[in-house]
Design brief:
Length: about 350
């Protein structure tokens, strides 16, 4: 952080500055020292600085203050008695209007603060679509097709960075910690699927939360994965992935390469003795169809190679030739029929 950049800051600029928000929220020693130095160098910014700090504290408190009716009446009685009789009525009306305007402004601020702190932002992808987004803390997320991510509108001001995933997403989490051995609550990043919860510091990982598979693949860094179903926890190292099996058994495996788990980012599937049933499940996840096999034993056939997932036609073309079947579509159902 450079003190010079705050020379031209307004109240609004302070309210949007992540370093300033962290200072107000956590009051860490290193931040206290830094902002004291800033005000020492730029005393002229103290008024804007203090106003911004008060506004953040008001929003963070998110609690309205009730004024007793008897106290209000007593205050107005004292005001009326102190004003000259000839000017009393006009002044009282003016003061009452100012007071009521202040109350209305406070209520509006409280309503806005409540909405801001208790509402979420949700980003979704359609079938066959991917999206890349940057979270308010600078972390990057790539969403796979037919997926969604939700996070608090007040993401930077919450006590923890937390997102919820339905589908599949690849994360590049931004480091916020100043001391890796003393991680503060607000520095942690939590990604939660339907059955797995991932807690990270600064990490690159893939979270898959689909009806047929719940899996976390760690590319770099370190994560703690928790089964929401059983409560069991696992620590992953780079190159490992944790999967929750259909029987709710929590399994951790190492892999020579994470490429197969991440190949969806390049619109393809890398297969190494992959079950046809798993490929069909992925097709259904990506494009929303229901695939019916003429013989359920076909689902256990295993294949190697690469399949493009860029379009439903390309995936069906490969399946059609591998299984030696014809394709017939009726509405949302796709029938693979023996030739």
């Amino acid at each position: 952080m450079q003190a010079e950049k705050y020379l031209n800051y307004t109240v609004e600029d302070f309210l949007g500055d992540d370093d300033f928000i962290r200072y107000v929220k956590y009051q860490q020693a290193i931040d206290l020292q830094f902002w004291n130095d800033v005000l020492t160098q730029h005393e002229e910014k103290r008024t804007d600085f203090e106003q911004a700090k008060i506004q953040i504290r008001i929003i963070l408190s998110a609690e309205p203050m009730a004024i007793p009716a008897d106290l209000t009446d007593s205050l107005w009685d004292d005001i009326e008695m102190s004003i000259e009789k000839s000017k009393r009525r006009g002044r009282i009306v003016k003061l009452r209007n100012i007071w009521l305007s202040g109350v209305a402004a406070c209520l509006a601020c409280f309503a806005y603060g409540s909405w801001y702190f208790y509402s979420d932002i949700t980003v979704t992808t359609k079938y066959g679509e991917q999206k890349v987004l940057v979270l308010p803390d600078g972390s990057k997320v790539r969403l796979n097709a037919n997926s969604s991510i939700s996070y608090a509108r007040a993401f930077n001001w919450n006590t923890s960075r937390q997102v919820t995933i339905d589908g599949e997403a690849y994360f590049e989490v931004k480091h916020l910690n100043q001391n890796p051995d003393d991680i503060k609550t607000g520095e942690r990043f939590v990604a939660e699927g339907k059955k797995l919860r991932v807690e990270v510091l600064g990490t690159t990982f893939n979270l898959k939360s689909r009806p047929n598979v719940n899996q976390v693949t760690l590319v770099s860094g370190k994560v703690k994965v928790k089964s929401i179903v059983t409560g069991e926890e696992k620590i992953l190292k780079p190159g490992e992935f944790a999967r929750l099996a259909t029987n709710s058994k929590f399994v951790v495996n190492g892999t020579a390469t994470v490429a197969p788990q991440l190949s969806w980012k390049e619109n393809k599937l890398l297969m190494a003795q992959t079950r046809v049933g798993d490929i069909i499940a992925e097709f259904e996840n990506l494009y929303g169809f229901k695939v019916i096999l003429p013989d359920t034993s076909m689902a256990d056939k295993r294949i190697d190679g690469t399949i493009s997932t860029a379009s439903e036609e390309s995936m069906l073309f490969v399946l059609k030739n591998i299984l030696n079947v014809n394709v017939r579509q009726e509405g949302n159902n796709i029938y693979l029929e023996k030739r």
